[in-house]
Automatic annotation (TrEMBL):
The keyword Signal applies. This is YCII-related domain-containing protein. Residues 1-20 form the signal peptide. Belongs to the YciI family. Gene3D superfamilies: Dimeric alpha+beta barrel (3.30.70.1060). SUPFAM superfamilies: Dimeric alpha+beta barrel. InterPro entries: Dimeric_a/b-barrel (IPR011008), YCII (IPR005545). Keywords: Signal. Residues 60-123 form the YCII-related domain. The lineage of its organism: Bacteria, Pseudomonadati, Bacteroidota, Chitinophagia, Chitinophagales.
Amino acid sequence: MKTLMLTCISMLFCFCQLQAQTNSNYDSVLAKKLQADDYGMKSYILVMLKKGSAADTSKTTLATIFRGHMDNIKKLAAENKLVLAGPTGNNDKGYEGIFVFNTSNINEAKQWLSTDPAFQSKHLDAELYEWYGPAALQEIISLNQKITKKSF
């Protein structure tokens, strides 16, 4: 019985030690810059882009709308409002792509969406969700610029 109790106490001590360990690579300056919590995470708004209600439009008009959409994506990314964007594959939900906005405020994210010609013209619509993800996600765009050979 005494051995069992000592074993349990020893295991509990080891478990507590594992829980208390800190990451030896931790960069407090970077964590603060990215507004990371103790787990390296933060809150964002995840946007599921989906087909909108707009009627079919001429190819020329559609090309102009989606050129504006791409330009708006670049603008929002440059302002550190948009940290991730990309299209989805074919699916039965009508999803066209995703955005991850660098805010935890859904109304602010809706305001940023309203600057996009594809939303203004009703060619795209959106579902918005609060999302808790890696704070380092904010570094993806600058990293991706280093490996992008061609731009849209």
